[in-house]
Amino acid sequence: DIAIQRQGPPKMLREGEQRGLMQLVLEVHGRELVFMNTHIDYRPDDAERMLNVGEIETRLKQYAGRPIILCGDFNVAHREVDIKNWKGNRGKAGFLEGERAYLDRWADELGWVDVYRSLYPEHTGEAYTWWSNRGQAWSKNVGWRIDYEVLSPGLRGSVRDADIFKSQRYS
After folding, report:
1. What is the reported pTM?
2. Which DSSP helix (H) or strand (E) runs through 51?
């Protein structure tokens, strides 16, 4: 969840949804702020997954220059630090080079900010957001970080803290 501290509710300017990407444009402190929430389907077929990610990137470009917060279940562990068993998962859906390359590009070329990693670059077990239902993965904390909050470059430095609530399991 994202919190905005202000007096009174923000003014909603418009909202919409298209192929797994919900968007909400708010006015906050006199500025337009775009919230986007997505769920990138888990599919072993890399080409179909990347089509969905490409559509998200196209939508992000439509709002270029505006402050954007993109949240959601990307179903991809971006870096080795984001997955407990990264060596064993090389070449598997959710940790494929092509999937991870999109996130590399968003960060390295486009300047987008992974909120949690910007604050806690080395956290491992504290950062996981998904665990298999097999083999006591939850109790052993053998997890993946596949859920993200990502900021457009203009919002860099605006986050005070980030936390992953794990004291209760929801799925």
Report:
1. 0.81
2. helix 46-62
